[in-house]
Amino acid sequence: xxxxxxxxxxxxxxxxxxxxxPEIPTISVVDLGIITDVKINGDESVLIMMTPTFSGCxxxxxxxxxxxxxxxxxxxxxxxxxxxxxxxxxxNMITVKGREMLKKHGLSPPPELxxxxxxxxxxxxxxxxxxxxxxxxKSPFGPTLCRSLHYCNNCKQxxxxxxxxx
Length: 166
What we know:
Layout: H1 9-16, H2 29-32, E1 35-40, E2 45-50, H3 60-72, E3 78-83, H4 96-104, E4 107-108, H5 119-123, E5 135-139, E6 147-152, E7 158-162
Parallel strand pairs: 2-3, 4-7
Antiparallel strand pairs: 1-2, 5-6, 6-7
């Protein structure tokens, strides 16, 4: 078993890239931006801080378990995963790789935000299948809180957008 002192924060983050979101299995918890801090303590314990994308996220407990199990698999005996709202999650926290993984899953990634979210933000969406901007917002309410429903007039595909949140 490795000593925690030999494991660094980058090692832990690299391992957590293998933990995928149960609802969007192409994206890791790291690339989704929900891992907000990793602390390696002097008592050889690891504390991982996590912020959910939405307060009512149904996958939250499962994610906590998956994160804990992955770090334990590195030989760390004392792992605490703490969900907190100290850092408010927003879609700008999704990495470039994460945005590509959303597209791979068939979701249009949210735009980078620099201000107030307007309904136009949901209307001007690129199709994840063909790249066309000739799309229509069908409903701002999708199958989960974090998605909206769209239709592409070019490739005739229905798709979802991962809603922007700031």
